[in-house]
Amino acid sequence: MTVTAALTVAPLDDPDVDFDAEIAAAVEALDDFDVRYETHPMETTIEADDLETVFAAARAATEAVDASRTYTQLTVDHFRESDLAVEEKVDRVEAHLDRPARSE
Question: In this entry, which stretches build a coiled coil (predicted)?
């Protein structure tokens, strides 16, 4: 089984907070879990073997942000009967495109 998730965590409504530093703290919190992750401009993609690990990692990332208000969005793709790594998802799309899935 594979669980893939898109996680967005950000401080809100707090002008005294260093936005980038708090995002870094959220990402760093993921290191305490058995997950693979890659950070992009709008979210961090997480891959784990089970839902509990994804939810725990997302919670830790949220709690790592030191702000009076925090926004968290978690989108989960749960393959219950097979394994599909995040790279394979992209590879499948690129096979149809016959090119990388990004602009040149």
Answer: none
pTM of the model: 0.83
Contacts of residue 88, Cβ cutoff 8 Å, sequence gap at least 6: none
Q: How far apart are CA 6 and CA 45, in angstroms?
A: 5
- Beta-strand ranges (E) seen in 1-104 are 2-11, 36-39, 44-48, 70-79
Under the banding of pLDDT at 50, 70 and 90, the label for residue 43 is: very high
Q: If phi over 0 gives left and psi between -120 and 50 gives alpha, with beta otherwise, what is residue 67?
A: beta
CB 76, CB 54: distance < 8 Å: yes
Which two tokens mark 23?
Answer: 């995002």
pLDDT tens digits, one per residue of 47-94:
999 999 999 999 999 999 999 999 999 999 987 766 767 777 777 777
Closest CA to 2 of 76, 78, 57: 78
